[in-house]
Amino acid sequence: MSSTVVTNIRTLVTNDPAQGDGGPLGVVEDAALVLDGERVAWTGRAADAPAADTAYDAAGRAVLPGFVDSHSHLLFGGDRTAEFNARMSGRPYTAGGIRTTVAATREASDDELGRNLARFLAEARRQGTTTMETKSGYGLTPEQESRALRVAAAHTDEVTYLGAHIVAPEYADDPAAYVGLVTGPMLDACAPYARWVDVFCEKGAFDGDQARAVLTAGTAKGLVPRVHANQLSQGPGVRLAVELGAASADHCTHLSDADVDALAQAESTVATLLPGCEFSTRAVYPDARRLLDAGVTVALSTDCNPGSSFTSSMPFCVAVAVREMGMTPDEAVWAATAGGARALRRTDVGRLAPGAYADLQLLDAPSHVHLAYRPGVPLTARVWHRGTPLAPLVP
Ligand code: NIG
Ligand code: FE
């Protein structure tokens, strides 16, 4: 195992409030950071940095934790270019296109699914993402859902069972039977590969009672709930997520005051906002300001999927959240790193403090604020995952 000291960091975001200026980002100016093997060994002022085996000169640029993207749907075949084109010509997003992806995914081989997933993970990594959750939901049979999760588990620890994405086409006339499949044989086949259970709680997908059945069955098998909640309309999803102690209520676009209160009082349910989705469906953005002012813990994530949000870019989501959702740059950067870690109940990622994984990114900019200030510019200069640098993008 060897150690590296990253020196000459203009702005270091640690997400450790005990460091730096005392704010939640724990910003240290003129900083250094020591990596030892897979972990962070030391952070602080450059002038106080201990010696290490090798040194890397950050040349006055910013270092922050790798992004933690806690919500994506990367196990799919085909794409939905035609649907996107139609939508940009005025047709609304209804989630009906999920069926198109289900048909294409069922046709794809395990190899194709794996190659597709690896490609998107690499794409995200080049944009600073070092932890990525992904989920099933485009197979909708026990065999298809479990093989998708098996493929996912070979690439990431953060795997979510979403058999309850929509009612499978074969069960269109008998949704109750489909819920029986999702909570029975499909769950048995999928649970060994997954950490989380999810449900799309929405009109036209699963109602509150069905969502409760899915989540409690998953919990009984050792999975932890997270919920697609209040994306297209108000409904019971958010309050159900809080009641069942879900790690996250995702989307949170259409919220009543009672939903906001429930999230504010939740012990450990994060509100995960997905700006790529509203951007790509020309929908109204969730009101992050309202949630933050109420004291809700907010995460940002891409929701990368071929229908509603085909972006793997966390910098893009940060910029949109700042411009369109009322977040400050500091709040958005926290939500895309520490917030994502909270949504995945992780303490070993999303922060740079001794003992955490050495998952970090160097920006070709002096501060993390440039992620929002310079939208669309590829600022990711270098990424370390578990202490190993990826090929440098900028020298
Ligand atoms: O999170 N809302 C449900 N699922 C996805 C969209 C899936 C699709 O359109 O293929 C979402 O936005
Ligand atoms: Fe989603």
TrEMBL record:
<comment type="similarity">
    <text>Belongs to the metallo-dependent hydrolases superfamily. HutI family.</text>
</comment>
<feature type="binding site">
    <location>
        <position position="165"/>
    </location>
    <ligand>
        <name>4-imidazolone-5-propanoate</name>
    </ligand>
</feature>
<dbReference type="GO" id="GO:0019556">
    <property type="term" value="P:L-histidine catabolic process to glutamate and formamide"/>
</dbReference>
<feature type="binding site">
    <location>
        <position position="73"/>
    </location>
    <ligand>
        <name>Zn(2+)</name>
    </ligand>
</feature>
<feature type="binding site">
    <location>
        <position position="228"/>
    </location>
    <ligand>
        <name>Zn(2+)</name>
    </ligand>
</feature>
<keyword id="KW-0862">Zinc</keyword>
<dbReference type="GO" id="GO:0019557">
    <property type="term" value="P:L-histidine catabolic process to glutamate and formate"/>
</dbReference>
<comment type="pathway">
    <text>Amino-acid degradation; L-histidine degradation into L-glutamate; N-formimidoyl-L-glutamate from L-histidine: step 3/3.</text>
</comment>
<feature type="binding site">
    <location>
        <position position="73"/>
    </location>
    <ligand>
        <name>Fe(3+)</name>
    </ligand>
</feature>
<feature type="binding site">
    <location>
        <position position="80"/>
    </location>
    <ligand>
        <name>4-imidazolone-5-propanoate</name>
    </ligand>
</feature>
<feature type="binding site">
    <location>
        <position position="231"/>
    </location>
    <ligand>
        <name>4-imidazolone-5-propanoate</name>
    </ligand>
</feature>
<feature type="domain" description="Amidohydrolase-related">
    <location>
        <begin position="249"/>
        <end position="365"/>
    </location>
</feature>
<keyword id="KW-0963">Cytoplasm</keyword>
<dbReference type="InterPro" id="IPR005920">
    <property type="entry name" value="HutI"/>
</dbReference>
<feature type="binding site">
    <location>
        <position position="138"/>
    </location>
    <ligand>
        <name>4-imidazolone-5-propanoate</name>
    </ligand>
</feature>
<dbReference type="Pfam" id="PF01979">
    <property type="entry name" value="Amidohydro_1"/>
</dbReference>
<keyword id="KW-0408">Iron</keyword>
<feature type="binding site">
    <location>
        <position position="228"/>
    </location>
    <ligand>
        <name>Fe(3+)</name>
    </ligand>
</feature>
<keyword id="KW-0479">Metal-binding</keyword>
<dbReference type="GO" id="GO:0005737">
    <property type="term" value="C:cytoplasm"/>
</dbReference>
<keyword id="KW-0369">Histidine metabolism</keyword>
<feature type="binding site">
    <location>
        <position position="308"/>
    </location>
    <ligand>
        <name>4-imidazolone-5-propanoate</name>
    </ligand>
</feature>
<feature type="binding site">
    <location>
        <position position="71"/>
    </location>
    <ligand>
        <name>Fe(3+)</name>
    </ligand>
</feature>
<dbReference type="GO" id="GO:0008270">
    <property type="term" value="F:zinc ion binding"/>
</dbReference>
<feature type="binding site">
    <location>
        <position position="138"/>
    </location>
    <ligand>
        <name>N-formimidoyl-L-glutamate</name>
    </ligand>
</feature>
<feature type="binding site">
    <location>
        <position position="71"/>
    </location>
    <ligand>
        <name>Zn(2+)</name>
    </ligand>
</feature>
<comment type="function">
    <text>Catalyzes the hydrolytic cleavage of the carbon-nitrogen bond in imidazolone-5-propanoate to yield N-formimidoyl-L-glutamate. It is the third step in the universal histidine degradation pathway.</text>
</comment>
<feature type="binding site">
    <location>
        <position position="303"/>
    </location>
    <ligand>
        <name>Fe(3+)</name>
    </ligand>
</feature>
<dbReference type="InterPro" id="IPR032466">
    <property type="entry name" value="Metal_Hydrolase"/>
</dbReference>
<feature type="binding site">
    <location>
        <position position="307"/>
    </location>
    <ligand>
        <name>N-formimidoyl-L-glutamate</name>
    </ligand>
</feature>
<dbReference type="GO" id="GO:0005506">
    <property type="term" value="F:iron ion binding"/>
</dbReference>
<feature type="binding site">
    <location>
        <position position="303"/>
    </location>
    <ligand>
        <name>Zn(2+)</name>
    </ligand>
</feature>
<protein>
    <recommendedName>
        <fullName>Imidazolonepropionase</fullName>
        <ecNumber>3.5.2.7</ecNumber>
    </recommendedName>
</protein>
<keyword id="KW-0378">Hydrolase</keyword>
<dbReference type="GO" id="GO:0050480">
    <property type="term" value="F:imidazolonepropionase activity"/>
</dbReference>
<feature type="binding site">
    <location>
        <position position="305"/>
    </location>
    <ligand>
        <name>N-formimidoyl-L-glutamate</name>
    </ligand>
</feature>
<dbReference type="InterPro" id="IPR011059">
    <property type="entry name" value="Metal-dep_hydrolase_composite"/>
</dbReference>
<dbReference type="InterPro" id="IPR006680">
    <property type="entry name" value="Amidohydro-rel"/>
</dbReference>
